[in-house]
Amino acid sequence: MPSDTRTVFAGSIPQLYDRHLVPLIFEPYAADIAARAAARKPSRVLEIAAGTGAVTRELSRALPPGASIVATDLNQPMIDHAASVGTERPVEWRQADAMELPFDDGSFDLVVCQFGAMFFPDKATAFAEARRVLRPGGAFLFNVWDRIEDNEFADVVTHAVATLFPGDPPRFLARLPHGYHDKARIASDLARGGFEAEPEIATVTARSRAATAGVPAIAYCEGTPLRNEIEARDASRLTEATDAATREIAKRFGAGPVDGRIQAHVVEIARSRG
């Protein structure tokens, strides 16, 4: 994956991401995906695009005793932060590119990925790599965000920031995190990656809650690569962008505790038909 403003999670982003964005939108889905993983009773699990370890921590609590976890991410600062937070069982942390996994064929019986597939520059290649490292009978379990209109805080933030840069609006959230939601395209990419079975795709709606309107504004504007896009246009306007997002969220959801809809697709597919 290229290291550009679309995908770089460095500087203060990992800390802000973990402090604000993880409880805001990732924790409900981390618990969901860990429960689905545990139901399969895997013995060796690979997590790709682990980020700051939201799913890794849930997996460490939910998986059967004796199950091993290897957690990877393209961005070393994210892995470093995740490792510093820690987990309830030993985890092997490794920097790795999902496009070229450094593991032997058939090394794992479950590959898990939370909200990472959207960032893969070639989805079929990444899916082929996931399939390659799966043992016969293994499965690939991942989730992706639904369209931005069904994820209310992200949608409001995107429109608020766009008002500051009308000639060149930062579209990171719509383009990447919320840009891979078409179920037919997901199924097609999995087939091109070598999966022969039909994927099971469930649409899961949850709630995103925060103590104030400022929390989601900071989370999205300063804790994701949207920050890089804002600063690339005018580094002096990051605070202004965060303030604009805060005002718009407060206008729609109130200035006190805020509550918005989030929605994602959860995909499960066996390595082979059998």
What is the compact description of this entry?
This protein is of the alpha/beta class and 274 residues long. It has 10 helices and 7 strands.
Describe the protein in words:
The protein has a single domain, classed as Vaccinia Virus protein VP39 (Rossmann fold), CATH 3.40.50. 42% of the residues lie in helices and 21% in strands. By secondary structure, the protein is an alpha/beta fold. Strands 3-2-1-4-5-7-6 form a seven-stranded mixed beta sheet, sandwiched between helices. It has ten helices and seven strands.
Radius of gyration: 18 Å
The figure for the number of domains is: 1
Query: Can you name the CATH architecture?
Result: 3-Layer(aba) Sandwich
Give the low-confidence spans.
1-6
How far do the termini sit from each other? 32 Å
Major sheet: 7 strands, mixed
Provide the CATH superfamily.
Vaccinia Virus protein VP39
CATH topology: Rossmann fold
* Overall pLDDT level: 93
* Strand order within the widest beta sheet: 3-2-1-4-5-7-6
Described by the principal axes of the CA atoms, the overall outline is: globular
**Alpha plus pi helix count:** 10
The amount of helix comes to 40-55%
Overall number of strands: 7
Protein structure class: alpha/beta
CATH structural class: Alpha Beta
What tags apply to this protein structure?
single chain, 274 residues, alpha/beta, Rossmann fold, 7-stranded mixed β-sheet, 10 helices, 42% helix, globular, disordered N terminus
Which helices and strands occur, and which strands form pairs?
Elements: H1 13-39, E1 44-47, H2 54-62, E2 68-73, H3 76-85, E3 92-95, E4 108-114, H4 123-132, E5 134-145, H5 152-162, H6 172-175, H7 183-192, E6 200-210, H8 214-222, H9 226-234, H10 238-253, E7 258-270
Parallel strand pairs: 1-2, 1-4, 2-3, 4-5
Antiparallel strand pairs: 5-7, 6-7
